[in-house]
Protein: tRNA (guanine-N(7)-)-methyltransferase
Organism: Ramlibacter pinisoli
Amino acid sequence: MQSPAGCRPGPFYNRRVTEHGPSDDARAPEGVPHPRTIRSFVRRAGRTTTGQARAMEELGPSFIVPYRPERLDYAAAFGREAPTVLEIGFGMGEATAHIAALMPQVNFLCCEVHEPGVGALLKRIGEQDLANIRIVAHDAVEVLAHMIAPASLAGVHIFFPDPWHKLRHNKRRLVQPPLVATLADRLAPGGYIHCATDWEPYAQQMLQVLGDEPALRNTASDYAPRPHYRPLTKFENRGLKLGHGVWDLVFTRTAA
């Protein structure tokens, strides 16, 4: 995945990005950002490999959940009752597949619009025989607004979203108060939000925005130790060797 022109990518994960339209203040019902003015992505150029295309054709019908503006029945989608974690933007699916393999007792509902990334995760699903992943190849903001019921998620993962380094672009960052309020609403009591970034100014913003949401509680005094399930990718390892930092934030939903 490629960052938009003028945004220097960080050293680790490929970026998951946000895009605001002319009116950042428009809101849909329930405090959800209006789908025409904020998205959880920007379309990126990319080429789907033969293996990814084959995975899309062979595994897509079983593991891709079509977007529909109605509440998703998790048990029907996954074929079982289990705690469900939403991931917003999984890139090429390396961390997603690792976590799903490590936690087979959990369902992972993963949003990504980048077709090569969807194909790459489907390929990993086939290679690793993973049964607990479903993909919605659609804007996560609309998925949250229409498909995710309140108090239904066990967790949310947002790993290395695009930091939008330039000050004038900061408003395009994904982790903003309206989205965090919606995520908190969709979490069951005790559920968690886990964010990670390699851009310190964005980590500071995340800490403030998450900390300002009254329905959430920080599990640490500020930044959290990296949870055992989040792997170090080759990009992250490379960055750490160069002295770059990574900041994890884990907040939980308070009791209603």
The chain has one domain: 19-253. The first strand starts at residue 19 and ends at 20. The first helix runs from residue 50 to 63.
